[in-house]
Design a protein that fits this description.
The complex is a heterodimer of chains A (about 80) and B (about 150).
Chain A: E1 2-8, E2 18-23, H1 28-41, H2 45-52, E3 55-58, E4 61-63, E5 73-77
Parallel strand pairs in A: 1-5
Antiparallel strand pairs in A: 1-2, 3-4, 3-5
Helix pairs in contact in A: 1-2
Chain B: E1 2-8, E2 12-18, E3 37-44, E4 48-49, E5 52-61, H1 63-80, E6 84-95, E7 99-107, H2 110-127, E8 130-136, E9 141-143
Helix pairs in contact in B: 1-2
Classes of the chains: A alpha+beta (about 80), B alpha+beta (about 150).
Chain lengths: ~80, ~150
């Protein structure tokens, strides 16, 4: 089992600056599923809906779901709203 | 402006600033003796949104990704238009009436400068990892929805 630190941005900051999830692999899909379970456990189905439209990043690289991360920290980016 | 990130190439400059963007002197950054047109856009925090009164917007930014996305945006705009271009965006608290994003472009003739500025703000809103938390007059706070970066 691997512990991944998820850095929160935008609306996910309602959960704090970051949180940890335990995953069996470093794939983004595994992390996404673990975050979804975490949000449901927190009784935040609203954020789980946002998660479906969100993307993960490692450093300055946006990650597709089939990618495996190299480290143990990712950023969670909800839909963007600059301007 | 309190810039904490700035990237400059030959024809463009972009950056992120803590607090509101400065609106004066932006045109001087795109001055070119061969250019007869300068277009500017200031995105200013307004006092209402979706029927609710607003006092300010608190901008959240992923510094590395936002800097990278702004630079890619500048490259794309300059590849499409023969312009000199500058874009700055705020992080943190910006009050009503203050600018959160400023864009200027210069070109030989007006259409390119106007088109570059218009495309730049349109694309910035859907490409750059920045988020808005609106602060109401009663200090109520709400995150605004936006554009997903996830490919469906």
């Amino acid at each position: 089992m691997i512990t991944v630190s998820v850095q929160c941005l935008g609306v996910f900051r309602e959960l704090g600056d970051d949180f940890d999830v335990d995953v069996e692999s470093r794939s983004v899909l595994a992390i996404r599923n673990a975050v979804s379970a975490h949000l449901i456990k927190l009784n935040r189905p609203d954020l789980d809906r946002v998660l479906r439209r969100s993307i993960f990043a490692e450093g300055d690289e946006l990650l597709k779901d089939h990618i495996a991360i190299e480290g143990s920290t990712v950023s969670l980016l909800p839909p963007v709203a600059g301007g | 402006m309190d810039l904490f990130s700035e990237i400059t190439e030959d024809r463009w400059k972009c950056g992120l600033t803590d607090g509101p963007c400065q609106t004066t002197g932006l045109d001087l950054l795109v001055t070119d003796p061969a250019h007869g047109a300068v277009a500017q856009f200031f995105g200013v925090v307004r006092n209402h949104n979706d029927g609710l009164a607003a006092a300010a917007v608190d901008y959240d930014v992923h510094p590395e990704l936002a800097s990278k996305a702004l630079a890619e945006l500048c490259r794309d705009i300059c590849a499409e238009y023969p312009v000199r271009l500058v874009i700055f965006h705020s992080r943190g608290f910006v009050r009503v009436g203050e600018a959160s994003v400023v864009i200027a472009a210069s070109s030989a003739h007006r259409r390119d400068a106007l088109g570059a500025v218009s495309d730049a703000i349109d694309q910035l809103k859907v490409r750059v990892p920045i988020w808005k938390k609106e602060i109401g007059l009663d200090d109520e706070q709400r995150w605004l929805d936006g554009h997903s970066l996830r490919e469906e």
